[in-house]
Amino acid sequence: MADRQTKIVNFYESTLAGLLASGATSGSLTTAPTTNGTTKISASSGDSSTHYYLVIDPDNSANREVILVTQSTDEALSTITRDVENRHATEPNHQGGTTVRMAVLAEVFVDVNDRIDTHAALSTHLTLIDEDDMSSNSATQPPSQQSVKAYVDAQNAAQSTGASIGIVIALS
Hints:
Radius of gyration: 30 Å
Structural class: alpha+beta
Largest sheet: 6 strands, antiparallel
Helix content: 10-25%
Mean pLDDT: 80
Strand content: 15-25%
């Protein structure tokens, strides 16, 4: 799945304003999706952070279809991607009046997961220090694995050569 941000709202339900025929890439709703019950959501094709998912006929397991809305204005869905779950060989026809919901879907979580790049996040926030003697004694920057090994090896070598243990055994 491609990287994109997706609008998530608490809940939205409406109906199709007319027939959404198989193969159609646009349609309309009777009520526009909103972020808070009053502020309408519009999707812009050039801004993936405005895109959102809708579930058409969500309570009908045979006809349920998830669509991705990539361009819309109020109730008009100008550009949609049909059947993003690949549940149907051919997209079903949905009659006017069919229930449409916006809900949190697995696709949303996959999109979010795809955007997480732990290596990039670490490299922007942490800088590894490469000091075999740990001289900077930083409380905020981690040492490299090689630095830790070199430091431990040096400490072990110093103890085995420079330290003597005196043991006194008294025999009676």
